[in-house]
Give the backbone structure.
Amino acid sequence: MRRIALLLLLPVLALCAPVATPASASEPGAAQALRSARGDTARLRAFLWAMPKGGDLHNHLSGAVYAESMVRWGAEGGVCVALVTFTASAGPCLPGQRPVADALTDNVLYNQLLAAWSMKGFRDGLESGHDHFFASFDKFGATTSGRIGDELAEVSSRAAAQNEQYLETLITPRFGDVSGLAQGLEWTDDLVEMRRRVLTAGILDVVPRASADLDAVIARQRALLRCDTPTADAACAMPVRFDVQGLRAFPKATVFAQMVLGFELMAADPRWVGFNLVQPEDGPVALGDYAAQMRMLGFLRSVYPKGHLTLHAGELTRGIAPPADLRFHIRAAVEVAKAERIGHGVDVTLESDPIGLLRELARRHVLVEVPLTSNRQILGVWGRAHPIGLYRRYGVPIALATDDEGVSRTDMTQQYEAAVTEQGFGYRALKAMAIDSLRYSFLSDGDRALALRVQRAAFARFEARYPG
């Protein structure tokens, strides 16, 4: 606690933020409206729902879907569920299983599935929030098979309804192809040679298949949202881009092959804009191979200098991982892998030389993607214990994010609510984070400039409601 207090008392560098945002004529009125709504839950929610929120830069598509949709899709697809573990699997049902369709008429089963497939009603006990959160993905996976377009329609529509201007979502393209290809590869620490082996094994053949898959996903999304019709959903006009998520808990050859595919996809198809590593950062393979994985990414960033990188780094805290693993993950992500953004960054005060690291993040303009709800659920870190205020004090750019909003039972507006009620942020701080979410997006220069113009117009309309 002394260490954190010392950090909070050190000189504030917020004036060193990389880009200043001029205040609008109506901004003081909006700021006052937020102050007056701070203690009124309904008014605060209404204010923040309508406020422009920029982009969601840390959104896992499979985890962003609410369990209610999974039950419906599972019922339509003839999926079964085990009555002990509530793990879904393809039909026909075996002894000890029931059709997911039964949940549509059996309220007890329905609520059991929602609780198993999300954080609904979760309370710490025999199972931690961390364990329940991550275990849910293996339980509901069968219900979402072949439903990526449906997932995208649900998530993008929810984002647009909350006045978000951009969605950058994470999906895993063609993992079966990549893992099959990698099984025949012998690992070598010579990364130049390892990339040659991956290319020779046929990774470039996967690129057009992954892009074709994305064509189908977007076509399904647009059909469900009635795009190009008079009743089109607002999400039809919202730009959506995709980050390739690589699974970090696999052998090095498989992880490296996923990385190569990600950078090749970014080079070939502008809809793929970034790469990230997913799965629990505290898993045994993730911890054991973390330094090696950062070296792999640093190497590939030198080979593909136009490819973008954002990394889960510092999604850890005391008790989750050994102290030695809390001292370097964020720094290695930035200095070795050359990440442009990091996700979570919760353990920054436990890193070696945290003051120097904070200053380095500000100097390098590395944005931190902050999902306040999942940080609380997975790591038990929230309120004054959360480092979001520390990042802001040192001029590190921040963007609020949803992470796995369906599993967490949250949305972007709730992240803004938490920033106000738990972190004490005012309107100007929220607006700065919303703007930075677009400034640090992986949109092309032209698309980013357009998104920022759209956002400025949205802020002008919003603030006009609250003349100063």
